[in-house]
Amino acid sequence: MTYQIVLIPGDGIGPEVTAATQRVIEATGLGIEWKTHLAGQIALDKLGSPLPAETLDAVKHAHATLKGPTATPSGTGFRSVNVELRQKLHLFANYRPARSLPGVPSRYENVDVITVRENTEGLYSGLEHEVVPGVVESLRVVTEMASERIARFAFETARRQSRKRVTCVHKANILKLSDGLFLRTCGRVAESFPDIAFDDCIIDAAAMKLVINPHVFDIMVMENLFGDIVSDLTAGLVGGLGLAPSANVGQGVAVFEAVHGSAPDIAGKGLANPTALMLSAVLMLRYLNEKDAADQIENAIRAVFARGEVLTGDLGGKASTQQFVDAVLAEMAKE
Questions:
Q1: What percent of the chain has pLDDT over 90?
Q2: Residue 204 designated active-site
Q3: Which of 43, 111, 136, 143 is deepest in the core (most CB within 10 A)?
């Protein structure tokens, strides 16, 4: 089978890490037809829109999309391309695994925790207005439909991966209506999965527990803003965003992306670490039911880290992007 994959190179180091990831995917021997489309600042400069209609349409009709980092201006300018993609294509589930890599120094060993984040509502609904000068309201939207959908995604993920527990992370002690609805809905969905343990944890307590002992969690499910923060926190537990894969999944549509920044200061210098996007490609291949190809890439990446001889500068090494990719390809060739 030949897969049609949309490639969004992104901004800054995006074109470098996407090109590197293309090479390792192609080394698996899978049939891939790449369709390159623009998004982000480069799309705004060249096409007049940070998220052109043709890019949206291509993502909608592809088997999957691989996306590099896109720049988002703070405080002014266009809305986040990531948020726009998720909302316009109804990519309701953000899936962020955090798994320790061998040889990467961090405070904990053998971390293996998954954050499942509701992607389409909450404060990221973008419903803001100025009441009077100096006073702004932001509306946080929580619906039973979206809560049930993300809870079911979390439990189905747990069952598919033979995970033991799902924890609902919330603030229902204060936000009694909105988070109360989210918590009750998760609890109701849990009744359909008696083989999987269910509990809940208030968001601030969960943050404390994660930094004390992240091994107490397995899969965590939560609303949009909490998920945004917690998924970055768990990435920090295993070495940072440069090692963190991410998937955004809807009904028949999925975007796999690196969630780190576009790093314009090192763009074009051949110094970027492509690990996050390569691991996102592993998630993409599993989504496409290409388990052997996914395992081949992941095992090769882990072997390179275990040796510790070819690491990029962000991890204390001196390797270029090209040297790191070559090392991964050499490990894949061994298999």
A1: 89
A2: yes
A3: 43
Per-residue pLDDT for 185 more than 90?
A: yes
State the DSSP string of 76-98: SSSPPHHHHHHHHTT--EEEEEE
Q: From 3.40.718.10, 3.40.190.10, 3.30.1240.10, 3.20.20.140, which CATH number describes the 1-99+243-335 domain?
A: 3.40.718.10
Name the pTM for this structure. 0.94
How confident is the model at residue 241, as a pLDDT? 95
| pLDDT tens, position by position, 200-248 | 999 999 999 999 999 999 999 999 999 999 999 999 999 999 999 999 9
Query: Which residue among the candidates 3, 35, 60, 232 is catalytic per the annotation?
Result: 232
Choose the catalytic residue: 67, 171, 179, 314: 171
Residues in the chain: 335
> From the candidates 45, 204, 265, 292, which is the catalytic residue?
204
What the block records as the tokens of 289 is 């039911």
Of 11, 179, 200, 228, the catalytic one is 228
Q: Which CATH architecture has domain 107-237?
A: 3-Layer(aba) Sandwich (3.40)
Answer yes or no: are the C-beta atoms of 304 and 331 closer than 8 Å: yes
pLDDT exceeds 80 at position 331? yes
CA quadruple 96, 100, 101, 105: dihedral positive or negative?
positive
Quick check: is 124 catalytic?
Answer: yes
User: What's the whole-number average pLDDT of the chain?
Assistant: 95
Distance CA 326, CA 332 (A): 10
**171 belongs to the catalytic site:** yes
Burial 208-242 (b: 16+ CB within 10 A, else e): eebeeebeebbbbbbbbebbbebbbbbbbbbbbbb
200 is catalytic: no
Residue among 11, 67, 95, 124 flagged as catalytic: 124
Positions of E strands within the chain = 2-8, 31-36, 64-67, 93-99, 112-118, 128-132, 135-138, 165-170, 197-202, 219-222, 245-249, 254-258
Q: Are 170 and 182 in contact (CB under 8 A)?
A: yes
